[in-house]
């Protein structure tokens, strides 16, 4: 019996146990995605005889004799299906990994269902957009923008990859057919801390199809950090590809490489490992106590660990002014301790990579990464290969949020390729994503602050404990960053910070949108809110009195790279918007408690210590331009902005700009798509490349660099561009100096005292991003950041039990916000032009996240009359707190 | 690990043929209806079977909603979507559409079945709570066409365990109708829309001349099985409905349930919700019975 796929009969019999999703992908339908493999996310939605189904929980056999439509088959002969067109028009996607499923579900909705999207679209999860753009798409977006020559910057140009995203033809990490591919699976540690005494591989090797088993004996005897930074000294070298000692439940013990996933898994099940179980420390508060088990007792300063004998990876003890005198001068002092939990990035595309040797025997790794160039550097060093013998490429990346600023898979894939000489693929399952990728760093933050009745903050004191888990990747940097902009945004003469990042035998934390700012902002902004209440001042005025102003130095305790300054200032405009929000009205259900709250946040555009980008723009013989740039695209939209810059600088239209990107072969270097640098660093390199090329084009027509007017899309001073092509220009930017961007968030909430349910009645966000390069996209970034933070504030938590085991391992247990859970957020932009950023732009990718949870905390405080200090604010906790505060 | 163990696949052509297959293959085989509970468990290797017998083609035989004077009969293969969209159910047993509106999403509802829901016997499963509330009985068919009828209490042996033997199929649910004014309602507190219940409650009341002749409350997610609470029925019978009665019922619900603290909430919170939702659904059910 055959299965008809998009009108064509397919005869191949499904494998026993195969689900329709893998069958369809094996038949070449790469548009059918895997987000969870358990019926929870909708990314795999296809139609069977016209009815949408989750193909991951649909036995492939059941499709025999039926007709299956995937995203690839949705468009008719006359062009895109109307739903595809409206997703394209409304730009109802960012990374696009959820888009095929969204479109397939939407295409089958009845009118009644369309009218009730919160209920009818809730089976499709999106981690990027915050759903507003998707809702607009479902309701029929307004047509796409086609800017004229020289008018691209500032327009809402759609993402260049849009047409591929909505047709399922965009190629993500695993969307390629590699003949002879082997599959890799790992055995993970069942112990929080143990020494591996022996690994018996014989039974695994006897499984038909198993080609190799890799253990710590095969791994290079070199240490590295999974964290990827330009400046390698930022992270301790405490990790091995496969280690003899395992330090958290879920750490790699051994890998099995086989001709099929099933054989590799069977091989893993047959490995016999003998462990010597070691004492473990799970609670970060206990990690620094004398006698606590040491996580990396065998290492020290040489590996970049400050005090390995006390589990301290990094610490900061510094002050400015005199806090005691500051508190003495205060009329009101408030102190509280706040806790933020582990949260998972939950990008819909899991971690993974495919590696092979190319025709020149070069090692090629195709990975879901934000840092191809740094990963190349790390892989080449681990395996003693020169850099030109390694190529790292990223396809389209299905969401990152910082989680992919990490080398979690490429090292092992490289090792397997080098060992077998064959192509090897390793794709994390959703459960591995929870147990063995990284999480947000859990923080405990105590803030004490004092203010005078006239509103002046007299002292600020921070005591911070960061749990980095079993490895120190990003641990110290997240702590330093978290303790910087959060206080530097205030003019305060007396500040004291004492912070530690400690190891525990738990799943490692890593980079995550906001990079520590979200956690510390959560505490600082709530303490300031309480102070404002104590002195009887409204929170906006209180901020206005204390925030930094143009011309101020940005100061915070500790040594800081001095290249950060205020190169444009829109925080005052942001605060004006927040004040205006407060004068609106909303109705809440009877008996519910209503409250309002706000918070602000500042973020540096780029990391301290350099972030490098190269770009090359080439005029092609057909008059089009090709841009080569290193930074990866995972839905953050930097590619769109780069195209806009090229189009305007070279006076052409965006459709005549081709982009090659995120491939170590296309440019010299790029530090990576992290630290909010896609526009301000890579974009600046693109701008410089454009200007270099423009000068050469004008010179070719014997015109000076200022005679830009003689350049058109086809000619320069009347000479056809074709006659002077090819011609290239290159640009480089080293990421310094750096400016700052600002965000402010306001909420009105209502709480049902009988169930603890919290409902957001109104959400307003204002942002100072400098020149708005692309309003639609910027709005999308902000909405997505706000939505992600709402999830982390109200619902999400990765739980780790006393033994150190992660217990939230599927989307059924870990709650991503659905369309029903995210309110629409009003987004306002300040009008500013930055003196540093390209064409006046600043960054706006991480920062919308940061003021959200304290603003919700403050609104909840306003509604309840008391403050909740521990995230997340789930209904049961709110209800419990109400009970505990009953007189 | 998300590759399920390899399994053989058979499509059932009739109920008795499926029972024949089950008898031959024994405990190595499992029926698959919608597959929305079974296949994720197999992928996570929480369950392994060598044979899957797909009963979707039995929809013609087992997918129905039949109303008679003294009962409503619903076939085990009736899908969530059909329960949601049925006008008959909406008019006589609105508790079904209340519940279906908050179960999963349209795609899951397109395939998931009443039988699969009940047989999965997940303690937070909504339709089991509905059937418990309605005092439903379950028709189980075995080899040689033998049929037995069990109550919901007998049906649910424990979490994920039912009275259905390896060689049997659940074919039908029967819900008694009484000749009184009747109303029913369902409510659920979920962590997010379409999620499994933190706690949910169903209520049904039968009124005669303004007094409660009978009332039933069923709770999900507050104990090993979806629970019916006879003490509530006893306390309400013969009384005129009103706030103080709902409060009493709520208090009994809170006292009688047995929740555990987990990621969905603390035991105290769930106990409180059992109280709150019992009151809310009884109030609604009475309102409907009166209108
Ligand atoms: C994302 C998601 C969200 C969900 N949310 C909810 C929710 O909020 N509330 C809720 O109640 N449910 C929820 N569900 C579960 C959903 O209702 C399932 O469809 C249902 O639990 C199982 O029905 P099924 O037909 O898919 O059963 P299957 O998965 O096919 O079968 C389940 C079990 O029942 C057995 N079985 C099935 N039919 C019979 C029969 N006739 N006789 C004997 N044994 C049988 C099978 O062998 C299997 O062991 C959710 C599911 C998903 C995927
Ligand atoms: S991959 Fe199928 S629902 Fe998530
Ligand atoms: S665009 Fe929806 S998950 Fe990325």
Notable characteristics:
heterodimer, A: alpha+beta, DNA polymerase, domain 1, Aldehyde Oxidoreductase, domain 4, 4 domains, 7-stranded mixed sheet, 5-stranded mixed sheet, 21% strand, B: 291 residues, alpha+beta, Uridine Diphospho-n-acetylenolpyruvylglucosamine Reductase, domain 2, Uridine Diphospho-n-acetylenolpyruvylglucosamine Reductase, domain 3, Enolase-like, domain 1, 3 domains, 13 helices, globular, binds flavin-adenine dinucleotide, binds FE2/S2 (inorganic) cluster, 2Fe-2S-bd (chain A), oxidoreductase activity (chain A), AldOxase/xan_DH_MoCoBD2 (chain A), oxidoreductase (chain A), iron ion binding (chain A)
Q: What can you tell me about this protein's structure?
A:
With 887 residues, chain A is α+β, with helices and mostly antiparallel strands. Chain A folds into four domains: 3-167, DNA polymerase, domain 1, CATH 1.10.150.120; 182-278 and 348-399 and 404-436, Aldehyde Oxidoreductase, domain 3, CATH 3.90.1170.50; 443-607 and 738-884, Aldehyde oxidase/xanthine dehydrogenase, molybdopterin binding domain (Aldehyde Oxidoreductase, domain 4, 2-Layer Sandwich), CATH 3.30.365; 613-733, Aldehyde oxidase/xanthine dehydrogenase, molybdopterin binding domain (Aldehyde Oxidoreductase, domain 4, 2-Layer Sandwich), CATH 3.30.365.10. In chain A, 26% of the residues lie in helices and 21% in strands. Chain A has 25 helices and 30 strands. A seven-stranded mixed sheet of chain A has the order 8-10-6-17-14-15-16, with helices on both faces. A five-stranded mixed sheet of chain A has the order 2-1-5-3-4, with helices on one face. The termini of chain A are far apart. The mean pLDDT of chain A is 96. With 291 residues, chain B is α+β, with helices and mostly antiparallel strands. Chain B has three domains: 8-57, Uridine Diphospho-n-acetylenolpyruvylglucosamine Reductase, domain 2 (2-Layer Sandwich), CATH 3.30.43.10; 59-176, Uridine Diphospho-n-acetylenolpyruvylglucosamine Reductase, domain 3 (2-Layer Sandwich), CATH 3.30.465; 181-290, CO dehydrogenase flavoprotein, C-terminal domain (Enolase-like, domain 1). Helix content of chain B is 38%, strand content 26%. Chain B has 13 helices and 14 strands. Chain B has helices spanning 15-25, 38-43, 59-62, 80-85, 87-92, 95-101, 106-111, 114-120, 126-133, 152-155, 230-236, 243-256, 267-290, and strands spanning 8-11, 29-32, 51-54, 65-67, 71-75, 137-141, 147-151, 156-158, 161-162, 169-176, 181-190, 197-208, 211-220, 227-228. In chain B, α12 packs antiparallel against α13. The longest helix of chain B is centred in the last third of the chain and has 24 residues, at 267-290. The mean pLDDT of chain B is 92. The chains are: A alpha+beta (887), B alpha+beta (291). The interface between A and B is large, with 62 and 47 residues. The structure holds flavin-adenine dinucleotide and FE2/S2 (inorganic) cluster (2 copies). One FE2/S2 (inorganic) cluster binds at residues 93-98, 126-129, 348, 399, 635 of chain A. Chain B: GO terms for molecular function: FAD binding; oxidoreductase activity. Chain B: It comes from Actinoplanes philippinensis. Chain B: Residues 2-180 form the FAD-binding PCMH-type domain. Chain B: This is Carbon-monoxide dehydrogenase medium subunit. Chain B: Keywords: FAD, Flavoprotein, Oxidoreductase.
């Amino acid at each position: 019996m055959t299965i008809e796929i998009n009108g064509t009969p397919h005869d191949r019999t499904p494998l026993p146990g195969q689900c329709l999703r893998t069958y369809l992908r094996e038949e070449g339908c790469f548009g059918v995605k895997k987000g969870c493999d358990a019926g929870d996310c909708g990314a795999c939605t296809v139609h069977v005889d016209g009815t949408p189904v989750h193909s991951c929980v649909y036995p492939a056999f059941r499709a025999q004799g039926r007709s299956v439509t995937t995203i690839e088959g949705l468009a008719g002969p006359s062009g895109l299906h109307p739903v595809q067109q409206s997703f394209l028009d409304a730009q109802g996607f960012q990374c696009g990994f959820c888009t095929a499923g969204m479109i397939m579900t939407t295409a089958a909705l009845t009118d009644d269902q369309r009218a009730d999207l919160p209920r009818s679209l809730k089976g499709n999860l999106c981690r990027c957009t915050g759903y507003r753009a998707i809702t607009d798409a479902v309701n029929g977006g307004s047509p796409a923008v086609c800017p004229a020559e020289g008018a691209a910057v500032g327009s809402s140009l759609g993402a260049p990859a849009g047409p591929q995203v909505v047709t399922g033809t965009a190629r993500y990490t695993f969307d390629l057919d590699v003949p002879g591919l082997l599959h890799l699976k790992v055995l993970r540690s069942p112990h929080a801390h143990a020494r591996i005494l022996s690994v018996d591989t014989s039974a695994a090797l006897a499984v038909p199809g198993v080609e190799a088993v890799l253990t710590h004996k095969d791994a290079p005897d070199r240490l590295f950090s999974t964290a990827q930074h330009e400046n390698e000294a930022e992270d301790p070298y405490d990790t091995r590809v496969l280690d003899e000692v395992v330090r958290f439940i879920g750490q790699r013990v051994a890998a099995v490489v086989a001709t099929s996933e099933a054989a590799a898994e069977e091989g893993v099940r047959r490995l016999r490992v003998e462990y010597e179980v070691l004492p473990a420390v799970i609670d970060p508060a206990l990690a620094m106590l004398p006698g606590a088990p040491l996580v990396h007792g065998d290492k020290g300063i040489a590996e970049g660990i400050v005090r390995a004998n006390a589990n301290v990876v990094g610490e900061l003890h510094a002050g400015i002014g005199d806090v005691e005198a500051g508190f003495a001068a205060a009329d009101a002092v408030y102190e509280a301790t706040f806790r933020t939990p582990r949260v998972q990035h939950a990008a819909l595309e899991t971690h993974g990579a495919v590696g092979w040797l190319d025709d020149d025997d070069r090692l090629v790794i195709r990975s879901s990464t934000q840092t191809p160039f740094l990963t190349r550097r790390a892989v080449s060093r681990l395996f003693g290969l020169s850099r030109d013998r390694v190529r790292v490429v990223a396809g389209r990346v299905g969401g990152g949020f910082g989680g992919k600023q990490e080398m979690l898979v490429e090292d092992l894939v490289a090792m397997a390729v080098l060992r077998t000489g064959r192509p090897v693929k390793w794709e994390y399952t959703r459960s591995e994503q929870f147990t063995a990728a990284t999480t947000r760093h859990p923080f405990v933050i105590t803030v004490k602050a004092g203010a005078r009745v006239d509103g002046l903050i007299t002292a600020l004191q921070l005591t911070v404990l960061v749990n980095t888990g079993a490895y120190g990747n990003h641990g110290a940097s997240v702590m330093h960053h978290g303790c910087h902009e959060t206080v530097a945004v205030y003019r305060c003469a007396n500040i004291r910070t004492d912070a530690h990042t400690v190891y525990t035998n738990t799943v490692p934390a890593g980079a995550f949108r906001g990079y520590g700012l979200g956690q510390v902002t959560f505490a600082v902004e709530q303490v300031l809110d309480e102070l404002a209440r104590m002195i009887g001042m409204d929170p906006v005025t209180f901020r206005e009195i204390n925030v930094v102003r143009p011309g101020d130095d940005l100061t915070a305790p500790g040594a800081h790279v001095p290249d950060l300054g205020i190169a444009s200032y829109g925080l005052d405009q942001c605060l004006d918007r927040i004040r205006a929000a407060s004068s609106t009205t909303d109705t809440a259900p009877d008996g519910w408690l209503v409250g309002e709250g706000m918070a602000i946040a500042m973020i540096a555009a780029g990391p301290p210590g350099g972030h490098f980008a190269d770009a090359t723009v080439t005029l092609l013989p057909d008059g089009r331009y090709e841009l080569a740039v290193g930074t990866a695209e995972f839905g953050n939209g930097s590619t769109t902005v780069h195209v806009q810059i090229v189009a305007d600088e070279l006076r052409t239209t965006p459709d005549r700009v081709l982009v090659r990107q995120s491939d170590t072969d296309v440019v010299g270097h790029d530090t990576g798509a992290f630290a909010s640098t896609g526009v301000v660093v890579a974009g600046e390199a693109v701008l410089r490349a454009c200007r270099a090329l423009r000068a050469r084009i004008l010179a070719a027509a014997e015109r000076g660099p200022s005679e830009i007017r003689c350049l058109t899309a086809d000619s320069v001073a009347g000479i056809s561009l074709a006659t002077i092509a090819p011609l290239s220009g290159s640009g480089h930017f080293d990421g310094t100096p750096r400016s700052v961007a600002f965000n402010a968030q306001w909420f009105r909430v209502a709480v049902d005292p009988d169930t603890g349910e919290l409902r957001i009645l109104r959400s307003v966000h204002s942002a100072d991003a400098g020149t708005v390069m692309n309003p639609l996209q910027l709005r999308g970034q902000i909405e997505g950041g706000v939505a992600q933070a709402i999830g982390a504030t109200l619902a999400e938590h990765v739980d780790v039990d006393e033994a150190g085991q992660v217990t939230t391992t599927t989307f059924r247990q870990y709650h991503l916000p659905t369309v029903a859970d995210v309110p629409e957020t009003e987004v306002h932009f300040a009008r500013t032009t930055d003196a540093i950023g390209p064409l006046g732009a600043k960054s706006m990718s991480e920062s919308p996240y940061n003021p959200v949870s304290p603003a919700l905390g403050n609104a909840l405080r306003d509604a309840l009359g008391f403050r909740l200090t521990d995230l997340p604010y789930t209904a049961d906790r709110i209800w419990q707190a109400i009970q505990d505060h009953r007189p | 690990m998300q590759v399920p163990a390899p399994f053989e696949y058979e499509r059932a052509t009739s109920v008795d043929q499926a029972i024949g297959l089950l008898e031959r293959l024994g405990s190595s085989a499992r029926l698959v209806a919608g597959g929305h509970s079974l296949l994720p468990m197999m992928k996570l290797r929480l369950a392994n079977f060598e044979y899957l017998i797909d009963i979707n083609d039995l929809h013609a035989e087992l997918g129905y909603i039949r109303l008679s004077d003294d009962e409503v009969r619903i076939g085990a293969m009736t899908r969530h979507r059909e329960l949601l969209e049925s006008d008959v159910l909406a008019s006589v047993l609105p508790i079904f559409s209340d519940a279906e509106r908050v179960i999963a999403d349209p795609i899951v509802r397109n395939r998931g079945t009443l039988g699969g829901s009940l047989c999965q016997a997940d303690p937070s499963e909504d339709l089991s709570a509905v059937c418990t509330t309605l005092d439903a009985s379950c028709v189980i068919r075995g080899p040689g066409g033998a049929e037995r009828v069990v109550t919901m209490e007998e049906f649910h042996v424990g979490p994920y365990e039912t009275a259905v033997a390896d060689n049997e199929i659940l074919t039908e649910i029967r819900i008694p109708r009484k000749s009184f004014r009747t109303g029913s309602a369902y409510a659920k507190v979920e962590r997010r829309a379409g999620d499994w219940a933190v706690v949910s409650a169903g209520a049904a009341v039968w009124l005669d001349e303004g007094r409660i002749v009978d009332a039933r409350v069923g709770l999900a997610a507050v104990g090993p099985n979806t629970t019916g609470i006879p003490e509530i029925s006893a306390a309400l019978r013969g009384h005129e409905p009103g706030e103080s009665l709902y409060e009493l019922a709520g208090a009994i619900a809170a006292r009688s349930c047995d929740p555990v603290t987990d990621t969905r909430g603390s035991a105290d919170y769930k106990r409180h919700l059992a109280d709150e939702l019992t009151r809310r659904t009884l109030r609604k059910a009475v309102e409907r019975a009166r209108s």
